[in-house]
Amino acid sequence: MFIKSLYQKKKPVLSFEIFPPKPEYPLETVFQTIEDIRDLNPDFISVTYGAGGSNRNRTIEIASRIKKNYGIETLAHLTCVGHSPAELDQIVNQIKSEGIENILALRGDPPRDQPEISFRPGNYCYAVELIRHLRRHSGFCVGAAAYAEGHVDCKRWQDDWDFLRAKVEAGVDFLVTQLYFDNRVFYNFKENLLRMGVTVPVSSGIMPVLNPNQIKRMIYLSGASLPAKLLHLLDKYGDQPGEFEKAGIDYAINQINDLIENGAEGIHLYTMNRAEQTRIIIKNLKTMGKIG
Ligand SMILES: Cc1cc2nc3c(=O)[nH]c(=O)nc-3n(C[C@H](O)[C@H](O)[C@H](O)COP(=O)(O)OP(=O)(O)OC[C@H]3O[C@@H](n4cnc5c(N)ncnc54)[C@H](O)[C@@H]3O)c2cc1C
Description:
Number of strands: 8
Strand order of the largest sheet: 1-2-3-4-5-6-7-8
Bound molecules: flavin-adenine dinucleotide
Helix content: 40-55%
């Protein structure tokens, strides 16, 4: 099923993001996580892709098995950095032969230990080129990444949003945002998109903060701003890991609740493969009647 059709049927569309285990860990570990969260009824599960293709087969196998064995729709992430157009054709054919119909088209970043694979002549430099490439293949629903606070490398937010509009015009069916902690940033972003004529559905990427060090890492990587309420949690519980985790989960629940009350089209939970915390968040929202 094309994910774009889910947005026509229900609101909010609920999705979970998982990542393949590192090569030294058995693939099956991720299926234990899926066993533990499947009854939360996500509308789809997305599976990340190691830029450069390091875990390519794992991404495709996990996405394919989620769909075939659990009957849950899947979204396979795919990055173009480090791949030639011919390699991308091979990967896309493999994705198709596994029955996967939805791809999140990303640029990716060169892995820190392989900067040499970055942007070779003839390869694509931006996700928009991958989106055009995918549009030459039939039979896929294509999503792309969006950054409510601008991509971390971008100098002007408006430029980033203009590049985003170019991605949508190249043939994107839906967007999934980078994490953010302040919903006002998202509402402002969404209004901007509408003013720019971008009307595809947008799922809000929410990552629960479960420990103080994780916040710093998340901010370094994503460039998300830290609202005062979250800073307050850091000050209050920074040296009490158990209390901090509880407060971080509450923060995510409140953030999602507010998004749903304000008409969010989709909630995309970055689960970090943490089944227990995902269960607490979703069960609470179900109890509150916010999601079915
Ligand atoms: C929901 C989501 C899922 C993700 N999943 C993965 C994953 O599975 N694996 C992974 O490795 N990474 C993943 N990422 C991270 C992503 O690959 C990085 O953020 C990467 O740096 C940008 O990818 P993009 O697709 O947004 O790139 P693009 O849209 O190409 O943008 C990259 C940068 O280039 C700029 N830009 C775009 N077009 C142009 C142009 N024509 N001229 C000049 N500048 C331009 C943009 O403003 C931005 O700064 C994910 C991100 C998100 C939000």
